[in-house]
Specification:
The protein has 21 helices and 11 strands. It is an alpha/beta fold and 462 residues long. It has a 7-stranded parallel beta sheet with strand order 3-2-1-4-5-6-10, with helices on both faces. Helix 3 (27-39) crosses helix 13 and helix 13 (284-300) packs across helix 17. The longest helix has 25 residues, at 355-379. The radius of gyration is 22 Å and the shape is globular. It starts with a helix and ends with a helix. Catalyzes the reduction of fatty acyl-CoA to fatty alcohols.
Length: 462
Amino acid sequence: MGPTENMPRIPEELSGKHIFVTGASGFMGKVLLEKLLRSCPEVGCVYLLMRPKRGVSVAERLRAILDVPLFEPLLSEHPEVACKLRVVPGDCCEIRLGLRAEDEDVLVRNVSYVFHVAATVRFDDPLHDAIMINTRGTREVVELSKKMTKLKVLEYVSTTYTFTNEPILEERHYAAHLDWKTMIKVAETADKYSLFAITKKLLGFQPNTYTLTKALAENIVNDARHDIPVIIFRPAVVISSVKEPFSGWLDNFNGPFGVWAGGLKGVLRYTYLDKDVALSFTPVDWAIRGMIACAVTRATSPQVVRPDPQHLAVVNMCVDFVRCTFRDQEQMLTDTRELAVYPIRYPASVLTRCYPYFWLGTVLTQLPYGLALDILLRLIGQKPRMMSMYRKIFYANDALSYFTMNEFPIATGKMYDVDKAMHPDDRQMFEITMDVNDVSLTVPQWAKEPALAVEIPLRIFF
């Protein structure tokens, strides 16, 4: 019997199933919700772990999530699907996820699929904070999942940059150089300042606290593989959507588009990187298709992603048939320069791997310009912001340099195995392989529409 005969249709498998999602307010979380509601209309309740913010209730936060262009096509045709979303107050930083007893009981009795997407993705977070969210938060999700009576799979969303010391990141478990139990205990008991002082030593080969704590979290999931059905999904740098629900959806400036925004507005002129390096990337809609397809595959046909029952199921995902170097992106920026309506300075971008040149360019051309603009802002009664912005850009560029100066090969065989095992009727909605024509569409929406070319960078930079 062929693999496609064993695989149920994804919408049918998720029909009536209850799903628990962490990180629903983030970039990938929003796209996951939209895809589930649009392509799996018969899905049961989708529970969203959401932290109340000061002065903003969780209900208001949910309304804010839905009130973005991403959901407009879906909600304009089927506004009733929003009723399937139920907010569960909680926090990944807290023990037992900060859940109330009655909410935990509902999740334990009803949930079949868990998507753990929540994480802090900042590279410069203090180690204590990163451990609490990325590592201990994962432990709490695993412990909750162990209690679920109907659990079919827990999917942990990691990153392809967890073990950059490997010649090739294979689709398997790697042991972190630190013990996750010890590190959680240290974060819970040690003084934050003492932990900060020894962070560099603890990092070892890891470039930052983000990759370290995600690697520790992978080890937590691996240790649970005999207790519950689990899978690790590792996307590369997640960029704007290719097709769904429309081309170009992006709500952040992570990855290459932060450079684009700064360049188009004339704010960013010097960037430290190697032009011949190509970042591995995954369009967000393809990543979400992969997340859902891999979770259903692990639940219904585990042999596809886990040939050896003793080993952890791990799937890497990235666009692996084309290299888009920073030199290519520099040309893209040049081609879209005419869309830079009302830039604060003529758009020009210098990409260099010479650190002294980058440093001098920043000090001699960007900082004086920022200082002059801050003086003007003070004179007209506004708060100065340019020098603070340039300082953040400089340190962010420094933090990213490990990734912009090196390439990290990634194995992606299981992505194709999942695609082959997929039910034929799911090809259109959940296909996770791509071709060159698909990649050509990954220009962010704001870079294609003159109005957005002004609006979105302004929202970030001013």
